[in-house]
TrEMBL record:
Record protein name field: Methylenetetrahydrofolate--tRNA-(uracil-5-)-methyltransferase TrmFO
Organism expressing this protein natively: Paracoccus methylarcula
GO biological process: tRNA methylation; tRNA wobble uridine modification
Gene Ontology cellular component list: cytosol
Family recorded in the similarity comment: Belongs to the MnmG family. TrmFO subfamily.
Organism lineage: Bacteria, Pseudomonadati, Pseudomonadota, Alphaproteobacteria, Rhodobacterales
Length: 445
């Protein structure tokens, strides 16, 4: 049987390899790390989480991301299984110990007899065979050039920023306190999953001034700052208005200062646990393109972080993706070169979960092809189906930008049409329909 070849062992490539192998098809998983590294990756492990350690909401009734989690679990996804095994308290979110998670994914793939992991860079797209390209936002320059040559068009790009990580022991807990927003979570650990640093009005205004004045990373020649709105650097948000941050990642709602319960904070900086030991916390929503020296100076202005020691400072990198509506069919194949499938962020989905989900579908589709079958996508009433529909034709090609899964991609329920007040009824109806339709899709395989 012809093997499925996969380029890239990130979240999408790892999930694709797992799904294809579990379908009984041999897989060759090609990964250039650690021989050829990137500035953002620190290890040679599969499915290394570079930016955040969160898979976002795990609510499969009221949230489209949670519904995507549900679908991946229903399809026996490796990424969700390892995330569940190594999850950390994070309120209603699914956060993981990132090192333990990626190590577990790597071990599972190496233990699967139908998967061969080959180290080394693939620089040119093959003209024959059954291939999945899942190289992610840090596709090597050589392979990116091959993709541009083959597609006949320039890939689009935005800049993805990395949030800093703080050593927990250096956070001043006489100023900060532990609490999830609105005390969300079923256990005490979940309800205390975040560390909160309060600011009064003067502290906030001084922080904004410093943020706007700080030295920023320069872009390389030929690059432009086309940011994805879901991952804006904090200084870019601040440039859009002085109140933007306190209505975004620094919003004070749903939090009560344990040290001063009668005093309402003007803004709050939240930190989320980044490892199982609880020794590292990342600053939520604080992606940045400030230079390292400026980051240390500005972030130590945050009350509670005045003596903070940073395990990692923020960074910024180019994130390239295809104009998929013009290039890919609904089997995620290049229309003009159907031996090539694409999966993950390179297709124009945004987020860990979305990327892994596209890998799951690509792996199953490629395995079906290897067996002489054809597998279509799930109905676009499902979270996975809605994403595939968006990137392969549902989006406007002229304005195509990276997209997180959201209920706006789902076909409306006529009986549930209405404004914001209808969400408590509409969203459960969306997710119930998605579950029913996804089960039916799985049953056909």
């Amino acid at each position: 049987m012809e093997p499925v070849n996969i380029i890239g062992a990130g979240l999408a490539g790892s999930e694709a390899a797992w799904q294809a192998a579990r379908s009984g098809v041999p897989v060759i998983l090609h990964e250039m790390r650690p021989a050829t590294g990137t500035f953002a990756h620190k290890t040679g492990d599969c499915a290394e989480m570079v930016c955040s350690n969160s898979f976002r909401s795990d609510d499969d009734v009221m949230n489209a991301v949670g519904q995507l989690h549900w679908e991946m679990r229903a399809a026996d996804g490796l990424i969700m299984a390892m995330a569940d095994r190594h999850r950390l308290p994070a309120g209603g979110a699914l956060a993981v110990d990132r090192d333990a998670f990626s190590q577990a994914v790597t071990e599972a793939l190496r233990a699967e007899p139908l998967i061969e992991i080959r180290e080394g860079e693939i620089g040119d797209l093959p003209a024959e065979g059954n291939w999945i390209v899942a190289t992610g936002p840090l596709t090597s320059d050589r392979l990116a050039g091959s993709i541009r040559s083959l597609t006949g068009t320039e890939a689009l790009a935005f800049f993805d920023a990395i949030a800093p990580i703080v050593h927990a022991e250096t956070i001043d807990m006489s100023v900060a306190w532990e609490q999830s927003r609105y005390d969300k979570g079923e256990t005490e650990a979940e309800r205390r999953a975040y560390i909160n640093c309060p600011m009064n009005r003067d502290e906030y205004e001084t922080f904004i001034d410093a943020l706007l004045a700080a030295d920023k990373t320069e872009f390389r020649e030929g690059e432009t700052a086309g940011y994805f709105d879901g991952c804006l650097p904090i200084e870019v948000m601040a440039e859009r208005g002085r109140e933007t941050l306190r209505h975004g990642p620094m919003k004070p709602v749903g939090l009560t200062n344990a040290h001063k319960p009668d005093e309402k904070a003007h803004a709050v900086v939240q930190l989320r646990r980044d490892n199982a030991l609880g020794t590292l916390y990342n600053i939520v929503g604080f992606q940045t393109k400030m230079k390292y020296g400026a980051q240390t100076e500005v972030f130590r202005m945050i009350p509670g972080l005045q003596n903070a020691s940073f395990a990692r400072l923020g960074g910024i990198h180019r994130n390239s993706f295809l104009n998929s509506p013009t290039l890919l069919d609904d089997r995620m194949r290049m229309r003009k070169h159907p031996n090539l499938r694409f999966a993950g962020q390179v297709t124009g989905v945004e987020g860990y979960v979305e990327s892994a989900a596209m890998g799951l579908l690509a792996g199953r589709m490629a395995a079906a092809q290897a067996r002489g079958d054809d597998l279509g996508p799930p109905p676009f009433t499902t979270a996975m189906g809605a994403l595939v529909n968006h990137i392969t034709g549902g989006a406007e090609a002229k304005t195509f930008q990276p997209m997180n899964v959201n209920f706006g991609l789902f076909p409306p329920l006529e009986e549930m049409r209405g404004g914001r007040k209808g969400r408590k009824d509409r969203y459960p109806a969306y997710t119930q329909r998605a579950k029913d339709d996804f089960r039916a899709w799985l049953a056909t395989q």
